[in-house]
Design a protein that fits this description.
The protein is an alpha/beta fold. It folds into two domains: about 200 residues, Rossmann fold; about 35 residues, no CATH class. The chain is built from eight helices and seven strands, in the order E-H-E-H-E-H-E-H-E-H-E-H-H-H-E. It starts with 5 loop residues before the first strand and ends in a 6-residue tail after the last strand.
């Protein structure tokens, strides 16, 4: 029987993060769910508990080093050393380049890239000590370029390079690092995109589905399934990879 592992999932209050946290709990992991808003975490924790799992909600700002250190220390004390990390926390500040403000750029880079760096640096100590670990960074098809998302695209592309470097550095210690690049996933976050484009959420979803080879948009469960594999014992020889979960090939 495999050891009980402790996982940390950032941005786990809703959407993809909540689905990942719930799936990892179903896989037998103890799960710490992190988000900026402590009240928003209650739903994810309650769902995991209802299904018989063990979860801990921790409020944390992943872009702040002190907050990250405190969160990881609390997880270690209450659930045990975290050896699985899913960097899912993210925000949108979409705009065309000539309209984008400094704050829009900095906020997105800080949450996605700095956040993943700070979390990975804090968790790798436990992974190296255990000689076992899994890191999954959430990229995006936007890493290939997307109008109105210079900040988001840069952050998501940066996460792919970050992932490959972690795989090289941490591989000798039994730690794998992989990235998942979701395509169009139906979440509340995309309502912001629909508003920016001047269309309804349903219109955006339907038009996207028409362009996807499998003729549907993705769900948070699709991303959770991919994460489940990357964090499993069976994926020990898969590292430094970027998996596009987008319903078709990506250029």
């Amino acid at each position: 029987m495999s050891a009980i592992r402790t996982a940390i999932v950032t941005g786990a209050a809703r959407g993809i993060g909540a689905a990942i946290a719930t799936r990892l709990a179903a896989d037998g992991r103890q799960v710490a769910v992190l988000d900026l808003d402590p009240d928003a975490l209650a739903g994810t924790v309650e769902e995991i508990t209802r299904l018989g799992g063990r979860a801990l909600g921790v409020a944390a700002d992943v872009s702040d080093a002190a907050s990250v250190a405190a969160a990881v220390a609390r997880v270690g004390a209450e659930l045990g050393p975290p050896t699985i990390l899913v960097n899912n926390a993210g925000i949108l500040r979409d705009n065309l380049l000539f309209k984008m403000q400094d704050a829009d750029w900095d906020a997105v880079i800080n949450v996605h890239l700095r956040g993943a760096f700070l979390m990975a640096r804090a968790v790798q100590t436990h992974q190296v000590e255990a000689r076992w670990g899994r890191i999954v960074n959430m990229s995006s098809t936007s890493a290939l370029g997307n109008r109105g998302q210079a900040n988001y695209a840069a952050a998501k592309a940066g996460l792919q390079g970050f992932t490959k470097t972690l795989a090289i550095e941490l591989g000798p210690f039994g730690v794998t690092a992989n990235a998942i690049a979701p395509g169009f996933i139906a979440t509340d976050m995309l309502r912001e995109t629909a508003a920016r484009m001047g269309v309804t959420y349903d219109e955006l979803r339907e038009s996207a589905a028409a362009e996807i080879p499998v003729r549907r948009t993705g769900t948070p469960a699709d991303i959770a399934s991919a994460t489940s594999y990357f964090t499993s014992d069976e994926a020990s020889f898969v590292s430094g990879q970027v998996l596009y979960v987008a319903g078709g090939p990506q250029d």
